[in-house]
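OP here, attaching both records as promised.
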Amino acid sequence: MLKAESGTLLFTTGAGAIDPYPMLATVNIAQAGRRNFAINLHNTLADDGIYAANVAINLMIGA
């Protein structure tokens, strides 16, 4: 099913995926799930030259 011989998948989330904010509890759960998915995807595909990563951006809009 995989046709690419190499490549990178980049996922972005907020910092709540790593260090949760109480006011964003429900969003943090979704972000943590996406981060976990990216890490597991990387662990599965890295041997085939396909890398996955998650970038958590810790900045409030308007800051």
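Record two, same layout:
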Amino acid sequence: MPSRVKALTRSGPLAALAVAASLVVVPATPARAADHCARADRIRVPGADRQRVACLDELTTAGTVASGHTDPADWAGLTPRDLPVPSGVPGVQIDGHFPDASTTNTNHGWRHDSQFVIRLPDRWNGGLVVSGTPGTREQYANDRAIGDWVLARGYAFAATDKGNTGAEFFRDGREPGDAIAEWNTRVTQLTRAAKRVVAQRYRTAPRKTLVTGMSNGGYLVRWQLENHPGLYDGGVDWEGTLWRADGPNLLTFLPPALRHYPAVAAGGPDADRARAAMVRAGFPAGSEFLWEFHHRYYWDLTQRIYREELDPGFDGDRQAGTPYCAPGTPACDADYDYAARPRSVRRAVEKIALTGRIGKPLITLHGTLDVLLPIGEDSDVYARMVRQRGRAHLFRYYRIDGGTHVDSLFDAHPDRLRPLVPCHREAFAAVERWTGTGHRPPPSRTVPRTATPDPVNACPLM
């Protein structure tokens, strides 16, 4: 079993002492101090042991790229090329981190995890949006897909790196599953802190708090609304990762892809049989044009690092297996059989598992051509879980025809794919109405790909 380098850190009395002892507040030189810098130096993020306050003329990426208050590498590849960038959002940005012993996040040269960003627009609409990042990315990963748009609508926006980042995130924590479990803790921590920051800045608590995110960030939305619904008014889950101790989960459907795709790619007499095996594993028929890209960039790495986090004993002392090993190689992830693994593996997954027992309104979106988290093994299952828990009245589920896991792939295949970012915006607006006026969103359904001539900017849910 690999060493687990730290215990989970939570906010509390010790964190408050750390703030009092070592809080760092570094206001940036304001361009228009009379507007958005008034009292900015008085803002304190509860529980943080470092923070920097900047007064900015532009909080969206239209300005933060040039000013150095975002990192484009964090959000590279997550949005279509022609997605518009809103602007005209002055305000205050706070960067910082909560106490933590792991050091995978190098933003700001801090080499410190549990980093966050909080943005407070001058023209505030009374709401707060909280988000955790997709994949194992850092805190700016949602800036283009989510942050720009909600800031332009007047929301305060807070995002966290989830407490560990990068392809070796599994080194964090003491026991299998700890690193992923920390993601949930860190979103809860940031939500509570951001609410208090909003109250400091605007002298009133947020009237509405929404949680949203994509992929692993969507998983966090589900978990928060199941476990801490009192913190939120509602949420939007963008193709969230499904963790269930009895499956399906990504450790049940990625090994068949690693095992069978090479025969599909090679052609020959075994290709049709291998393709059929992949479809049986959950990969949608008609998505074959996406398989080579995902085999090259996603399936192998994803399987190995998440398997290492939850089942480190599979490959002994080796960490995260052998890349692209051939079936039959000792401890090869292409041969991984979740159902045959020891009970301890299920206990690790139980630590992070979802139940479907949401306590606030939730909209889930998922693309029918997702071949990293196939829809039939993920959100279709989660929708059934919510219904079985008797929470269908709090839930809407939109299957986006032609959507895939990574919106930037639309640029390569505009004739066969559609981006999910405009669907997320439609869903977010629907949750606003649902939690505001009580106006219920359209019934759950599959949204046709041909529903709009402008797929980058529109996605009618009706």
